[in-house]
Structure formats: structure tokens, C-alpha cells
Amino acid sequence: MYKARAWLSRSFTALSSNPLRVCVVGSGPAGFYTAEKTLKAHQEAQVDIIDRLPTPFGLVRSGVAPDHPETKIVINQFSRVVQHERCSFFGNVTLGSSVSLSELRQLYHVVVLAYGAESDRALGIPGEDLIGVHSAREFVWWYNGHPDGKNLSPDLKSTDTAVILGQ
Fold first, then answer.
1. Which PANTHER family would you find in this protein's record (predicted)?
2. Which of 50, 110, 145, 167 is the most core-located residue (most Cβ within 10 A)?
């Protein structure tokens, strides 16, 4: 399923009008819904989904708490999409270093950027950069085992109080 090397070694000739070739950058819900709708709307379309992570499903995999299986069940639907004969997933492909946007635009008729936000916005609150202050993204990635959260080590033993800003 995870064919990053195959994708990187693909060689396309000049774009022809048939079949429609679509590249979806990002394999979270937005990316998979885009791929699914494209496959249904264009009966000959070829859809490649690329992601910087080695595994698909984005926030469904790494942003939904394990105690919410009813939310995570959408992975079944996404799995059917990626197993479709006209759809491929390629992990470990980073836009900007593995491949440029201009290269993708030369290889595909359509490029959809569906990768979401990968960083937090500073709130401008004094102390937001202190040790022990974490963004929701960081914390959720940490407790869900996302590769980008592996170095976070929240101190969960020194206090029984937490403060959450926002919702």
C-alpha cells in the first residue's frame, strides 16, 4: 500500500487528456473525500494520494482520541477508496522537498492541496512559550502516537490541574 519509492520513480510522458490524472496532497479526511468524489465523478480518473507521513488517514488516525471509535470508523470507508484500482497512496512524500508543486502540476491535470495546518498560531499571551504549556495539536499528536509528537513529554505527575484555552 505504501509505495513512495514507486511513486518517486514514476515517469510520466506529456499529459494527455485521458485519463484524468489527479494528485491529492494530504491523506486526511479532506484528501480522501476528494479522492472518493473524483473517482465517482470521473469514471476513468487516476487518483494518487501523497502524504509526508508513511501512513494514511491524517487526523482520523492521529487526531481522534482512541475512546471515540465511532469517529474513527470512517477509516473503513477511506480504506475502500485507497484500495480502488484507480487510486494509489504514496507515503513519505513531502511537498517541497520530495517533489515541488510545479513538478506535480507538470505531472497531473489537477493537484489538490488537502494537507491542513501543520503548525500552531501564537496567541500573544504572556507565558504561552513556558515549559508545560502545550498546544492542543501537540498534545493530541503525543497521546495518539503521531510521529511529530514523539518528543513531547508533558508532566502529568506534578499537578492535578490543567487549564484549557479555547474549545
1. GLUTAMATE SYNTHASE 1 [NADH], CHLOROPLASTIC-LIKE
2. 50
